[in-house]
Write a structure and sequence with these properties.
Two copies of one chain form a homodimer.
Chain A: H1 10-23, H2 36-43, H3 47-59, E1 63-64, E2 74-75, H4 80-92, H5 98-119, H6 122-137, H7 141-159, H8 162-178, H9 191-208, H10 212-228, H11 233-240, H12 245-251
Antiparallel strand pairs in A: 1-2
Chain B binds a DNA duplex (30 and 30 nucleotides) through residues 9-11, 35-37, 45-49, 51-52, 54, 65-73.
Chain lengths: 253, 253
DNA sequence: ACCTAGCAGCTGTTCAGACCACACTGCCCG
DNA sequence: CGGGCAGTGTGGTCTGAACAGCTGCTAGGT
């Protein structure tokens, strides 16, 4: 019947106020907060309290500070870097296994490709084609992976769903870091690499033809093929149940 | 060709060292870091520097501080609360339209139900059945919505994918806030309400029978039916493209 | 011998003041 | 007209201090 008392620490109250001001739109991305010493007066707290609050907001990706600026901390729009950093930490703490990230990529990738097939513009198609060209031109694994990521980023953009876009970007970054090279798409001029690029061309063709079902199916299969080699039988099964029924039998063994 | 120079701030170096120590397993969850004053000596920096570093680590969910402890900051295992908090902020700041939230729920809900059908235990089935009972017993809209949310939460739990679970929980909260009552599932003893509950029973039956395809299809349709009434024709189309081909034609008009 | 109230010490929290390095501004001089 | 240079305000860091809360020990009473 009693609610737990919340012992508010001073800097938490400061964080909450600034957070609300940003979320409510009072401060838009690109705006500048008052300088630290002014915030000290406004909030009626000590400088270190304000600074600790700013450190928290900075680690969340809401603000950015730079010495010498005449305008105070800058409100920056994207919290994606902060989310990526934390998610990466979660994976490193073994709180989230890699197989679940790949699982998510298969789910979200299929949906994004399906949506993109219906909503894409000609400009999206051009950017996807450019990304595939960059994959072919890549000489090292990092460049190749970056181009691959670029392709998927365009797909998410074309899908027009911000949730898929934000989370997909974060998960993609995290997987890129975690499986760097070892499990990722092959970089050499091998048969696997050509096959991987050919898969992307087929996906692009499906999206061009507004064939969402095919695009989704191809995207799932490509992701499964790219990562299944590095997983054991049980983990592969957790991925295979997400594939279409007809291909599930042939790949789940 | 040039990499941006990283002006190291002292507290960032401290964060990095402690972060690495935790990730490497040198400090396991439940362990205690040295007290602030000891860290000051170890790192050779000022007190405020150590404290700002600890604030960052705390906002990432890696450590927890409490006054009076004889042992210093505690290393805590789960980063999930921090992730949820940041993701909620991202959703709030992007001002994501309702249709995109529903779109995401259809995508993630279908996948979660598919996975749950394969991985569920008997205990999960009991909890789902209990949630449905709670829906039937509900007399007001809020209780009904809470029971519905509970059902989906169990499904996500059974699906065993933490990314799906974390993001799904945040999005579910967001939709609950945004469409509170107005668009949500019907609360009265209407035909729609009985139909809504019957849908959940069918989903539970499919999950019980380990029929992932059916569970996924039913979940998508139920979500679509629940929210499509409040959306216009163009928005309904963005949802309908996510449904199965055979039902798409009959519902997309 | 056992229990309990009180005390001392350590912890985190907050504050105030000071100094430094840096970036921007505007003036002055070539 | 252009470039160098000091002034000024910014964030970054450090020091010292005081306060509140918890822990663990201890002295006193039962």
């Amino acid at each position: 019947m009693f609610t737990p008392v919340d012992k508010k620490r001073a800097f938490e109250a400061v964080v909450q106020q600034i957070e609300s001001a940003i979320y409510s739109g009072e401060y838009a991305p690109g705006d500048f907060l008052p300088p630290e010493r002014t915030l000290v007066e406004d909030f009626g707290v000590g400088r270190s309290t304000v600074r600790e609050a700013l450190r928290i907001l900075e680690s969340m990706g809401l603000v950015r500070t730079s010495p010498g600026s005449r305008s105070g901390p800058e409100v920056c729009g994207s919290v994606t870097p902060g989310l990526t950093r934390m998610l990466r930490g979660a994976v490193r703490m073994e709180e989230i296994p890699v197989v679940e990230l790949v699982q998510y990529r298969i789910i979200a990738g299929a949906a994004a490709n399906r949506l993109a097939a219906h909503l894409r513009t000609d400009e999206h198609l051009e950017r996807m084609a450019a990304a595939i060209e960059a994959m072919e031109a890549a000489t090292d694994a990092a460049t190749f992976a970056a181009a691959d990521d670029g392709f998927h980023a365009v797909v998410r953009d074309a899908a027009g769903n911000r949730v898929l876009g934000i989370v997909g970007g974060v998960i993609q970054d995290a997987t890129l870091d975690l499986v760097a090279g070892a499990v990722g798409p092959p970089a050499g001029a091998s048969r696997m690499r050509r096959e991987f690029i050919a898969d992307h061309r087929r996906i692009l063709a499906a999206i061009t033809g507004r064939d969402g079902d095919t695009a989704a199916r191809l995207a799932s299969q490509t992701l499964y093929d790219a990562y299944s080699g590095a997983l054991d039988k049980d983990q592969r099964h957790r991925l295979a149940v997400l594939l279409e029924p007809d291909v599930r039998d042939s790949r789940d063994h």
